[in-house]
Design a protein that fits this description.
five-stranded mixed β-sheet, alpha+beta, six-stranded mixed β-sheet
């Protein structure tokens, strides 16, 4: 019995020593040490006995995969952890050697992560890898875990523009302004008509004067628009009903105008001169390009759209100057020069959130998705697709999106306030100046008409009577005129 226990103790001790020596040899392996020291090598997680181990290739791109304290973290790393927990596998992460996503080289071979999968250097690729038809022909993709498109990343100060001269008309559309003018004229005409028909408003048509002439009705409606009480004051119930309805209409209209105008002035990003890819092609101030060998570049190359063809020809002719190697280089170039970057809209949203002086143009084309790439004969494709769908249905993908795209820059831009610029009200001041000029001209015309009628009664010239009226109203000394009369009498 004692010999049996002693034998078992020796066996267990020998196995523990062998296991410890194997782990020590693995730690002292020069290849493993080089990988760990570089920070861009392998990252093994979840290794357990009996579980299959997958070699995962990825690419360094914020916030999908990043290096923090010699370890990898990011959206794709968290996604990989969730998939490994659901499908019960361990994995070993390696960063792609050439730093490319995957494209066909000049010799016909695939580069990047797609090439590593085809050469069986990796089992799957978990990265912001766009699903395209060319890649689908050589590898298999799972259900996309992120939806994106192609957008334009710009720097705010390179695309800022002066506000339109008639910016105060922007809160309402042309149709709304036309309807407002029609409603104003129609309401004033109804006031004029009802005031003539109602006996309470105009009792004796032969002996009394109706104060609600059409011009007075127009003035009454304009006063209501400005929230001012003006005469004539209505007496009849019918006229008061129309006036009360018009007052309610003007109050609601002014409230909507003020609210829309305030929102318009607060959102400076709504007035970008480059709204679409067509605007980008027509301008000459900014250079534009994309990632060399990316799916975005080949999207414009294969597109039949004339605008897209112009963009491809521009980038192809200036390939060495406008195409960038990495996404970080693209963002840095946008921030430091007059350069617009064409790329994945979801990555551009992150750049705009991290850097408050960047903004993405509104138009997004070429809807696409990021998927996990596997070999065509892999049994993991369907399993991973189902797992991705479950993560989406449970809200885990939305949680990861909010986690890695969260930033304080968005909240700062919403709370930002700036004084109203004079250019925004330039058209309003011009309208006021024109109205004052028209008022002065109308006053001069009225005075000239009165002078013409008065000249017929006193038998003087119209110009002399007009001059006398002007001098009297402006209180100008009549020394010059009196001296002229005295010299005239002497000559007589």
């Amino acid at each position: 019995m004692d010999k049996g226990l002693h034998f078992m103790f020796c066996v267990i001790t020998t196995m523990l020593l062998l296991r410890e020596s194997s782990q020590t040899g693995e730690k002292n392996d020069p290849k493993m040490l080089a990988a760990s020291k570089s920070g861009f090598g392998t990252d093994s997680r979840g290794r357990e006995e009996g579980l299959p181990t997958l070699t995962v290739t990825t690419i360094l791109e914020d916030p999908y995969v990043m290096v923090r304290s010699a370890e990898l973290e990011g959206y794709c790393i968290d996604l990989l952890k969730a998939l490994a927990a659901m499908l019960h596998f361990s994995y070993k992460v390696k960063v792609v050697g050439d730093g490319q996503y995957g494209a066909v080289s000049s010799n016909g071979n695939w580069t990047g992560m797609i090439g590593e999968i085809l050469r069986q250097e990796a089992d799957i690729a978990v990265a912001p890898l766009t699903v395209t038809s060319a890649r689908e022909e050589v590898v298999s993709f799972t259900t996309p875990f992120l939806q994106t498109g192609i957008g334009i990343l710009l720097r705010k100060d390179t695309v800022s523009q002066e506000m339109p001269f008639f910016h105060f008309l922007a809160p309402f559309s042309k149709e709304t302004w036309t309807g407002l003018l029609f409603a104003y004229v129609l309401t004033c005409f109804c006031l004029f008509l009802v005031a003539r028909l109602s006996p309470c408003e105009w009792n004796e048509p032969k002996n009394e004067e109706n104060h609600f002439t059409f011009l007075n009705s127009l003035w009454f409606g304009a006063g209501a628009l400005a929230l001012q009480g003006v005469t004539p004051r209505p007496k009849a119930l019918s006229v008061r009903v129309i006036a009360a309805v018009w007052w309610l209409f003007t109050i609601a209209l002014l409230a909507a105008y003020i609210a829309n105008f305030t929102a318009l002035l607060s959102s400076g990003s709504e007035q970008l001169p480059i709204q679409t890819f067509e605007d980008l092609v027509k301008q000459r101030k900014l250079e534009f390009g994309t990632l060399d060998g990316s799916s975005t570049f080949y999207f414009f190359k294969n597109s039949k759209n004339p605008i897209h063809q112009m963009i491809y020809e521009y980038m192809d002719k200036r390939r060495d100057h406008v195409l960038v190697k990495t996404y970080q280089e693209a963002v840095q170039r946008v921030m430091e020069s007059n350069y617009a970057f064409i790329g994945e809209s979801i990555s551009q949203d992150l750049a705009a959130a991290r850097h408050c002086n960047l903004i993405r143009a509104p138009e997004v084309i070429g809807a696409r998705g990021f998927g996990i790439a596997t070999t065509q004969a892999s049994l993991w494709t369907k399993k991973l697709s189902i797992a991705v769908l479950k993560l989406r249905e449970s809200g885990d993908l939305d949680y990861l999106r909010n986690k890695w795209w969260e930033t304080s820059c968005l909240h700062t831009s919403r709370d930002r306030w700036s004084p109203l610029q004079p250019q925004a009200l330039g058209g309003l001041f011009l309208t006021l100046a024109i109205g004052l000029a028209l008022g002065v001209i109308a006053a001069v015309v009225e005075l000239s008409n009165k002078s013409r009628h008065a000249a017929g009664h006193v038998k003087k010239s119209c110009c002399s009577v007009f001059t006398e009226e002007m001098c009297t109203r402006l209180r100008i000394k009549e020394n010059t005129r009196q001296s002229q009369e005295t010299s005239g009498r002497a000559n007589a």
